[in-house]
Write a structure and sequence with these properties.
Number of strands: 0
Structural class: mainly alpha
CATH topology: Four Helix Bundle (Hemerythrin (Met), subunit A)
Helix content: over 70%
CATH architecture: Up-down Bundle
Number of domains: 1
Low-confidence stretches: none
Shape: elongated
Mean pLDDT: 95
Number of helices: 5
Length: 107
């Protein structure tokens, strides 16, 4: 499995507080799958505005857990006005999110 997660930033923010880290990871394990469901709905309904807003909202969480592999994908989704370009990025975004959830489960 590819390693998508780097907890360096979360460690800095937590300042050694392991409970905070566990709670943050637990929250992400709940939120990421829920957000993937929303993304699927937005894709089905071709709701690019909602899709872009959600991807932007998720970005701060991804920064916290070092998901740097997603930066180019997020950048393309946020900056593009082309439905074709945005929808072309969604499968990669969702794949990395799903793999990251599995990785977080093993932490």
């Amino acid at each position: 499995m590819t390693n998508h997660i780097d907890l360096t930033e979360l460690n800095k923010v937590a300042d050694g507080d392991q409970e905070f880290m566990k709670e943050t990871i637990a929250l992400l394990l709940q939120e990421i799958p829920e957000n993937i469901q929303h993304i699927d709905n937005y894709v089905t309904n071709n709701d690019l505005i909602a899709l872009k807003k959600l991807v932007h909202k998720m970005k701060s969480s991804f920064m916290l857990i070092g998901m740097k592999e997603l930066w180019p994908v997020i950048g393309t989704i946020e900056k593009s006005d082309s439905s074709e370009v945005i929808m072309g990025q969604v499968p990669e975004f969702v794949r990395i999110c799903k793999e990251s959830v599995e990785e977080l489960k093993s932490i």
